[in-house]
Amino acid sequence: MSKPGYSGVNRIVKATRYSMQGLRAAWQHESAFRQECTAALVLMPCAFLLAESLGQAALLIAVCIAVLVTELLNSAVEAVVDRVSEEHHQLAGRAKDMGSAAVLLSILMMLSTWVLVAVQRLTH
Questions:
Q1: Lowest CB count within 10 Å: 47, 51, 87, 109, which one?
Q2: What is the pTM (predicted TM-score) of this model?
Q3: Residue 3 falls within a domain, yes or no?
Q4: pLDDT tens column, 14-59
Q5: Is 71 marked active-site?
Q6: Active-site residue, selected from the candidate residues 30, 71, 78, 87
Q7: Tell me, what CATH number does 36's domain have?
Q8: If 0-12 CB within 10 Å is exposed, 13-18 middle and 19+ buried, where does residue 25 land?
């Protein structure tokens, strides 16, 4: 059974509007998201200078976007946890810590990918 609501182009327009609201909220309320966006805006054009192929450039850009996606999901988890209760709870802390760990892993994935592509480029 499908969910009631909009369909077709109208659904796409509404979904796009909600997505833009989410990006705007992250930009306004999350300094980590602003910092990671700034880094991505610097790094993504550099991907075309560093990469030896379009595939490598796509990989370098994808890992930058993966960091942003992970940060958005982490911020969403934190917002929901804070909405439920500001009171400290072990499960709430665990959820926030896991979200933070996911961001850390995505940053490490991005760094290792960029370093490996740079090493390959500089040694050939």
A1: 87
A2: 0.90
A3: no
A4: 999 999 999 999 999 999 999 999 999 999 999 999 999 999 999 9
A5: yes
A6: 71
A7: 1.10.287.3610
A8: middle
